[in-house]
Amino acid sequence: MTFEQVDNVPPLQPGTAGAFGPGTSNFNDGTGIPMPGKNPHSLQRVLEAPTAAPFNVERLKPIHASTKTTNAAYRAALHGTVWENYQLVATQWPRVPDSPSNPGAPPNTLPGTPPPKDSTAFANVTLETFDQKSVFTSCMACHNVTKGATDFLWSLKDHAYPAKLSTPNLIMKYPAVRAFGSSLKQQ
Length: 187
Fold this sequence. Notes:
- The protein is built from seven helices and six strands; from the N terminus they run βββααβββααααα.
- It is an alpha+beta fold.
- A two-stranded antiparallel ribbon has the order 1-4. It has a two-stranded antiparallel sheet with strand order 2-3.
């Protein structure tokens, strides 16, 4: 599952106000300036001062209608708590339960239909901003790369011990991650 703050990107939820003020989102200032086609900042640049210039972020695939209905019910039930400010974006699970030997690739997951048939949100817009259009960069496909040693948790693989390299480069030192990235470029 992946969750987001309700006012991260348009469309705005009723009664929310983003960082740019009323009528805006936390990561979209409402000016209509489109999101760049690819990340204008290298991962290394994110760690350097001064802070990189912001850009507008957009949701490229809508949250599924049934997920929106579920979110409305939970937000009402959680009214008055910090949790009312979050929404479920997508849920993915294996087609065959209790089968850790199956890879987390789209054919083995629900949802898992490659585009253009899969037209709903499959990515967290603030974490996977530029990967929203590809089901091949889905939750399970990425976490499958680290399934054996750390039970699908990247944080254990790359943050359990003090980093000797910068965080973005630390993740890329693993051959499985580089192979996964190369396979995405070929598709």
